[in-house]
């Protein structure tokens, strides 16, 4: 099985070739292992418990651009059952300059870094995960493109992820995530219906 990371630094096709981006090294395309929703592309690091998700979500017109990435972060916290006080927090939010992006169709782009205490597969124990979110706003397509980089920081010994905790060989970095965001390119606007 070819991993997406085998073609590092080459654009990797997403959503049937409608988009592409540079995926970090040691990435496995999860759609080759199990069914993934049509609005997502999911990659997992071969040796760590890190993952990347590129997701097409509904444009949230009621949320201002500067609050939009926080809105999605809190939505993910709700899905992760991490909304109780102290279970999630935002470290930084920055606007990304258009001049650094390949996705010229976006009206604005944002990057958020935060943490969430989450359990995997509804387990009792929780792991501390740093989330790096990238958000591209495309109001003309009624779409937000959300990119999530899950980077576990503290894994409980009782978690099903514990076996990956000691094998952090060449983990993905924030620079890998930033390269993925900056190289995201739209080839076929028909993707958005």
Automatic annotation (TrEMBL):
Signal peptide: none annotated. GO terms for biological process: heart contraction; protein import into nucleus; regulation of membrane depolarization. GO terms for molecular function: guanyl-nucleotide exchange factor activity; small GTPase binding; sodium channel regulator activity; transmembrane transporter binding. GO terms for cellular component: nucleus. It comes from the Eukaryota. PANTHER family: RAN GUANINE NUCLEOTIDE RELEASE FACTOR. This is Ran guanine nucleotide release factor. It comes from Solea senegalensis.
